[in-house]
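Intended use. Records such as the ParB/RepB/Spo0J family partition protein entry shown here are meant for training and evaluating sequence-to-structure methods. They are not intended to support clinical decisions.
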Amino acid sequence: MINKKRMGLGRGLGALLPEKQMEEEDAQSVETYEISVDGIETNPYQPRTNFDSEALNELKESIQVQGIIQPITVRRIGNVYQLISGERRLQASKLAGLSKIPAYIREATDQQMLEMGLIENIQRENLNPMEVALAYQRLLKECNIKQDELGSRVGKDRTTVNNYLRLLNLPEIIQTGLAEKKLSMGHARALLGIENEEVLLNTYREIIQKEYSVRKVEDLVREINAGAKPKKSTESSTSKSPKIVLEELQVRLSALFSKKVAVVADAKSKGEIKIPFGSKEELEEIIGKLKK
């Protein structure tokens, strides 16, 4: 038999409950129950895929000293309980050797489970940027929350929410790098300013290889966008950055004139082509090739 006691509802989860349920619970304190940790199933709608083992161990040590400060939240399904929120607290409690854990018992549909689990994790957990972006996307698509409402539901301003959602437009390899903390949210936001995918991927690899700071990446992206923008109608021009085009032009001209030709240009693609010659005959030969 489970033990129960009355306890005030935490503000974070209280904000997520339906208005009718909140009105009912305003009139009285909320009961918490001591539930066996072995009788709790994990939340199938848990948005978090990775848990920091060091942080989990710190929470375990805190629980061993202070106990569970904030109860977990579950719903009853038959003879078992299914976790709504508090995955880290449940895992840390098991590591701490607890046999029972305090819990709120809620009635919740699958959609409410998803919404409460997503929002609580976004607000309380240190999710990586891609986990946050995917959680926002699920709230929009699976919980039918309008994008204009999403910011207020998760406690973030609209610009912040949009910045996370834009990460989903990045190539998969960059999304993976962001999830694995190979680059930061600041790096990713700067990379979103590059439209050409090949240039984007090359820039990403350069960032990883040379360990660029966010400021360096922002400067690099500005340089790329300040250069000659390729015409969309030409396939060869849309697939190469300005720097690559200049290098290839230099190689082609050097081969044409059998000399080391220098092509120099600034950020606005203004510059000069230098073709060396050692005699009047070589100059006339260069002029002849230019006329062809």
